[in-house]
Amino acid sequence: MIFKKPIQMILLGFAIWFCLLVGVGQNQTIAATLTNAESISQQRIQTLPEPPNLESGVDRFLTSIPAGYYTIANVEKLKSVLKNPQTLLVDVREPSEYQSGHIPNAINIPLRTLAHNLEQIPHDRPVVLYCSSGYRSAMGVMTLHLLDYENVQGFPPSFAGWQAAGEAIAFR
Fold it and tell me: Which residues form the Rhodanese domain (predicted)?
């Protein structure tokens, strides 16, 4: 959509050029009108504001991420966080993965449906996301932070780390 106006101006320029080429230029009134239109369209192209620089916006976001990137680094720290009954633990894996075993008391909101289930994620309580290896939970944390959730952390050791530590696993 950003390029719609410049494309229209280019098309207008081609139309004017074509008209002049096939003889409209013979009529001075039409030629003068078309020349003025071309001049105005060139001025509009030159005065269009520069589109925002996506790279600098992404850079600002990435450099604003604090050390530790909103993470809970190990199983013991997660167990400590989960002692708070207000903490919501969210498994962002697919339902079949969740059903084959998950961290006790976790709810399942697959990453691909996260934005459609925001009503289940509170703004005023701690929220911890995990998946099977850390990748999807990191994407979920970033997504929720971009949606103004400041209470969200990820658990990078994820389900694999929980299992490797010999912790209890729930099945539904």
Answer: 83-171
